[in-house]
Every structure is written in C-alpha cells, then in structure tokens.
Task: inverse folding
C-alpha cells in the first residue's frame, strides 16, 4: 500500500510537555497507520495520552518528535496558520460536551463551520439542511441547543463535523455525557456514517461495548499502543 491510501500515518511520535523542570511524556515513539474508511476505537487508562494523540492528529497540538502524515501530506513542520487551515478544512471534531454555540440554532451551528471555510451562503444552507436530515434532525433545524436533547445536540455536533467533508472525524468520548438510549443512537449514527458514507472515524471511548462495535480497537498505555485488535464491524444494529 502506498501512502495515499492512508488517511493517517504516524511515525515514531513522541510528545513531551515541559512543566517547569519536570517533563511529562504522554506519547513515546508511537507508530500508527489508519486507512481510508476505518472506524478505530482508542481505549486506555486516564492520562494515557488519548486526547493528546487526537489533538496532534487534529492539528490542535504538535509532535515533539516523529512525523505525522494526513492524506499523504507531512504536517509535522507546518506553520500555525497552515495547521489551522488543515484543521478547519480536513478535520471534523466531536467532543464529549458537544461544544455547540448556544445562541445559534442547529442550522447556524452547522453553517458556521462552512462559513469559516469560505463556502457561499446558498451552498451552506443546502448542505446544512442535507446534513441535519442525514443525522436524523430534519424538522429541528431552527432549534437552539437548549431546546434539543443531549443526544440531539450530539447529532448537531456530528453534522457540523461532517460539514466540510473532512478526511477524518476525531471523536473524544462522544458518548461520555449520554444516557444509555442516546449512547446507542449516537453509536448507530457513527456506524451508519462509516458504513454508508465511508467516513473514517477515530474515536476515544471508555466503553468496551462501544469499542467492540468498531473495525479496530487500539489500547494505549504508557504512551504506546500496547494492543491493536481487528474486529468485525457490527452492522447488525443498522437495519
Ligand atoms: N497541555 C498540557 N500540559 C502538560 N501536560 C499535559 C497537557 N495535556 C496533557 N498533559 C498530560 O499528558 C498526559 C496525557 O493526557 P491526556 O492525553 O489528556 O490523557 P487521556 O486523554 O488519555 O486521559 C497526562 O499526564 C496529562 O496530565
Ligand atoms: Mg482524554
């Protein structure tokens, strides 16, 4: 396989935070390849570097050592402004706490991501409507977050993450704040996007049942991937 079939290639990644005279090394000599269309779960104890890894892939933070390739492009030594552009146009983030803007309705939250990427108003509206329908929120486009359930808010966040057709969706404990029913719905939605649209997803989760449903399970410990398990994707729940 050549590099371009890989959405993500990480070589020998080390991250060191300097805290006064002390160094914290959440990631140490980590290697990882992710193919187009994979749905990868990342598990590991608290403090094992899961969020740090997602932040580096998502161009929020940068490597101390090693190299990171997104869609074949080496982003390791990109300037802040180039990292910002990659993050804005090629990465979709989904957070545990949804992070919607409370004074914007569902449409406007999704449109904002496209506005920042320079899409025209007409194009944005049509795309936002399409995405909100795709995540099951047709008819609720004009509701502000406060008028949506927690599960619905996370659906808006997923629609927003998809807005610019990102190379990869990075989800950091997307079901961590949800009750069981909403958790199941969000996982079903992510699986559906992965299976039907081919969306590449890297998802941090503490939930073994959630992780068991994805193609691949990585287990982080001591800054390294200590387990990398291929799994059968659970398409049964999609019908
Ligand atoms: N900005 C930072 N400055 C210093 N240390 C940090 C920073 N971010 C994370 N860390 C440290 O790096 C380690 C890994 O953190 P994190 O990636 O958030 O772990 P996880 O998401 O697996 O719980 C922890 O020891 C944490 O305290
Ligand atoms: Mg974390």
Result:
């Amino acid at each position: 396989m050549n590099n371009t079939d890989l959405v993500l290639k990480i070589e020998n990644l080390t991250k060191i935070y300097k805290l006064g005279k002390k160094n914290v090394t959440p990631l140490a000599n980590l290697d990882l390849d992710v193919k187009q269309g994979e749905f990868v779960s990342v598990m590991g104890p608290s403090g094992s570097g899961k969020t740090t890894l997602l932040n580096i892939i998502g161009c929020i933070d940068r490597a101390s050592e090693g190299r990171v390739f997104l869609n074949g492009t080496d982003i390791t030594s990109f300037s802040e402004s180039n990292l910002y552009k990659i993050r804005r146009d090629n990465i979709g983030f989904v957070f545990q706490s949804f992070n919607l803007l409370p004074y914007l309705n569902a449409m406007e939250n999704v449109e904002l991501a496209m506005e920042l990427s320079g899409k025209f108003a007409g194009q944005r509206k049509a795309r936002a409507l399409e995405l909100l329908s795709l995540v099951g929120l047709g008819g609720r486009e004009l509701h502000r977050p406060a008028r949506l359930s927690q599960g619905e808010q996370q659906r808006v966040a997923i629609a927003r993450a998809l807005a610019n057709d990102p190379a990869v969706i990075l989800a950091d404990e997307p079901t961590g704040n949800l009750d069981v029913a909403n958790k199941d719905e969000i996982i079903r939605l992510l699986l559906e996007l992965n299976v039907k649209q081919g969306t590449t997803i890297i998802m941090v989760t503490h939930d073994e049942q959630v992780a068991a449903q994805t193609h691949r399970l990585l287990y982080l410990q001591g800054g390294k991937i200590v387990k990398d398990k291929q799994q059968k994707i659970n398409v049964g729940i999609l019908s």
Remarks:
- The chain has a mean pLDDT of 94.
- The chain has one domain: 3-100+165-238.
- The pocket of magnesium ion (ligand 2) is lined by residues 50-51 (CB under 6 Å).
- The first strand starts at residue 6 and ends at 19.
